[in-house]
Write a structure and sequence with these properties.
metal-binding, about 180 residues, EC 3.6.1.6, EC 3.6.1.15, alpha+beta, ribonucleoside triphosphate phosphatase activity, nucleoside diphosphate phosphatase activity, 7-stranded mixed barrel
Length: about 180
């Protein structure tokens, strides 16, 4: 991963499953910060294509946080009643040919504006773990990252800090 995209540039986001099949593509996302280890990007009303070809348009501005050391990514969605976070347990990201890519490992955490949260899709994770033969090492890495993510949420660290979404959203507006 030598090349990083320019700030203000547009990329796609490609989500895959462990078996290599494409899961979801976000059409156009603006890079706000791009380094080897960290990608912060934003989109609003961008087209999303599902693996079965269906498409939909996102409803609100979102700030996306990807890190090369963490097995998760965080999407902060700015809604009328506050910021909702959707956290995907996933492989660390790579950047290749104009697209940020990661493997989605089913487990998700939804965080509400009051910072309460729910762990979602544990049944789907168990099913896919068997179907796609997730190695035990990956299983334990993912579970450690769920714990770390919950710690970050509770401590309001990183993308969960009070000013994170606001300051990156302000930056996003300068590119629109």
């Amino acid at each position: 991963m030598g090349i990083v995209p320019a700030e203000g540039g547009k990329i796609q986001i490609h989500s895959y499953k462990h078996n290599g099949h494409i899961h979801r593509i976000w059409e156009e996302t603006t890079v706000l910060k791009g380094t080897q280890n960290l990608m912060i990007a934003a989109n609003d009303r961008t087209m999303v294509t599902e693996s079965d070809g269906r498409t939909w348009i996102t409803r609100e501005p979102a700030i996306c946080y990807f890190h090369s050391k963490y097995w998760f990514n965080v999407i902060g969605m700015l809604r009328e009643d506050g910021v909702y976070y959707y956290c995907n347990i996933s492989s660390p990201f790579t950047y290749d040919s104009g697209a940020l890519k990661y493997i989605d490992y089913d487990l998700d955490i939804k965080v509400f504006p009051d910072m309460t949260f729910n762990l979602l899709d544990e049944d789907e994770y168990e099913r896919h773990r068997k179907e796609m033969n997730y190695p035990d090492a990956i299983d334990s890495i993912l579970k450690m990252n769920v714990d770390y993510l919950i710690y970050m949420i509770r401590q309001r660290k990183g993308p969960f800090s009070a000013e994170f979404i606001d300051s990156w959203y302000e930056r996003f507006l300068t590119y629109r």
